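Lecture notes, structural biology module. Today: joint structure prediction for complexes of two components.
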Amino acid sequence: MSPDRPPVGALFRRFRERLAAGADRAPDDRAAEEDAAGSRAAADRHADRATGSGAGVARSDAGAARAGLAQPPRDVAPTDRRRGGGRRKGGGEQLTVPPAEFTSYYGRPVLKAPVWQWDIAAYLFTGGLAAGSSLLAAGGQLTDRPALRRAGRVTSLAAVGASAVFLVHDLGRPSRFHHMLRVAKLTSPMSVGTWILSAFGPAAGVAAIAEAAPWLPERGVLGVGRRLLPPVGHAAGLVAAATAPALATYTGVLLADTAVPSWHEAYPELPVIFAGSALASGAGVGLIAAPADQAGPARRLAVAGAALELWGAHRVENRLGLLSEPYTTGRAGRLLRAGRALTAAGVAGALVGRRSRVLSVLSGGALLAASVCTRFGIFHGGVASAKDPKYTVVPQRERVERRRSHPEESVS
Amino acid sequence: MIPDANSLYGPLDPAPDAGWAEAGPRMGFFTDTSVCIGCKACEVACKEWNGVPDAGFDLLGMSYDNTGALTANSWRHVAFIEQPRPAGHRTPPFAGNPTGAPVSADAAAVGAGTGGPSGTVPGVPPGDPDAAARMVTGPTAPTTGNGTVGAPAGANGTAAVGNGTPEAPANAIGAPPAGTAGNGANGSQFLGMPGAQPPGRGTGAEGRADFRWLMMSDVCKHCTHAACLDVCPTGSLFRTEFGTVVVQEDICNGCGYCISACPYGVIDQRKGDGRAWKCTLCYDRLGAGQTPACAQACPTESIQYGPLDELRERAAQRVATLHERGVPEARLYGHDPTDGVGGDGAFFLLLDEPEVYGLPPDPVVTTRDLPKMYKRAGLAALAMVAAAVAAFVGGNS
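The predicted structure, tokenised, for the full assembly:
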């Protein structure tokens, strides 16, 4: 028991105070004030009610809905879905979200939300960046574009190093990180990823170190290194590039292979989004580092990556019905919209600014930022879907009802 | 060993599939909530035997349940639900009297906003106020029954809904006799808790409420297809010879993957400690031929421990008996080996829809789709390679 615990009963006293405070005003006054204030959150909640628990829904409880605490008091900040919901339409098409009438145990979440912190979302980016830039480096080394090769290899090492730090830091017991190496399990995408990283990391490291060869003296022991490093780096770069696609896409399986509703149901798209995001961020590095005469492949890579990323993101925001909602509202919605705008800007800048170094660097930066936004957006969308029982109960309930009405079909 | 074709999904005997050549019968729990009295002896016994730390001593303000959820520090959790309807088989105690929601929707909604300091992550987070208010207004319509009991019960539920408007606030039982008191509006007297008195004693006939209490001791389900076990990257989670799922605390490095993977929201991370913890089905006691602590402590045999086949038979008989006695809403949960998780090692007899108890209505093990996920990832990886090759073939345009 931690020494900084609040005194026993503090929570309940707070609860009682809130109840007293909330009940001082009559529900009608509260509703009127809410309308007058016109706060976006309140408007959203009213809108939800109109579709969700309006007249005609058998078990709706008007009293609960009205008195149901227009401003729900909470110990923690309200979840994201409450904020920014009014901008739902800003994300593109209107969602066909079914009315979210559902029951759950005192409104508590059914699932445990992921305990992963921001560092896992950051790893999604750095892992993808490492993969994308090592592909760029391999392309550069095979087609004799030294600027691309150098930038790709160095970025790849830095990104994979950061990835390792993020991953170990997020563990509940960081000192036991090596327990990941006890087993190799195909059923655990995290175990698969551990071994992919174990292959990729050293290869990327050797390839990056090989870039230091020109700085070594020509004679002596180090001189041998100077002669040996380039071919070793060449081989290591190819090994890294061969593992890179797996590194970039396994994270999609990592997120999808959970009970988190919006991640799991997005399993066909997540690897595509992450592959595109990895390519785009690798291309961003190329655009920033390479002179205009070497940056052609980076520009094409940016277009391809952006296409995959935008297609995938569009699909998860529209295909999943109710489970798309977490990706279009709240923090996740804002991040994904920002990611989309930055991707578009980055690609446009890369194509227009062929001759302009400044424009290339700017668009490269935009692509990197877009990748960060997309990864955090997908991450937060899933977390929001696990925190709200609606996303667990409603789709499962629908599945049960479907099976009940069509017992002969095997509904998945 | 060649893995079973149903290793990821479908009916399976898990212990032999996990490599136990001489596994005994699969052991499990049958929790019959129709006889649960909510005494929480199971919670206490579990903590005592397993040395589980406290989960905070605060009141959650939503019902007599102050544990809130299964967490790393609560391996048994007694859910407590109060709803405006008599249990089907009893003679309604106040038949013919006015009915109303016994717990005000206000109180439930406020209570939903309370998080429990359980010392775990994510522990007991606050819930959705609207959903909480909906839950206390009445049970879902019985789906298993068609008898005469269902009809008046449904009528009661409708009446409760009608009473729940702001003009006629739902009455809380045990509220002071003043006619208007009892909803959340009278904050000085209403404590946000269901009352301690029988319904109607303090309020007069007009305020009487017909209600029922549902109690259910929740626990790790020890799934046939345990997602937590399958995704564990360290091998910390393993399948025992009894077919149960146990975390090895000396292996777990707190990666948290099992927590996201569990379709029931059971396994949880302990703060400060960093590792994941859950019910072990008293692996140590089982090995010594003893009954798990919770089942041993249960005074009403609501928690029954034994070979799973035997328990399933017993459960089917119990449901038949209850249906016969006029409890059409009795149904089993987690007993079916063909369900989304291949059947639970710990299954339940429930008196309402699973989501009322905080259980997912139709959980599916996430690894069912794992082959398809890998296939999609492979395609995406090929697309990456193709894009990279295409980008580098060609000039510097």
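Point to remember: The first strand of chain B starts at residue 27 and ends at 32.
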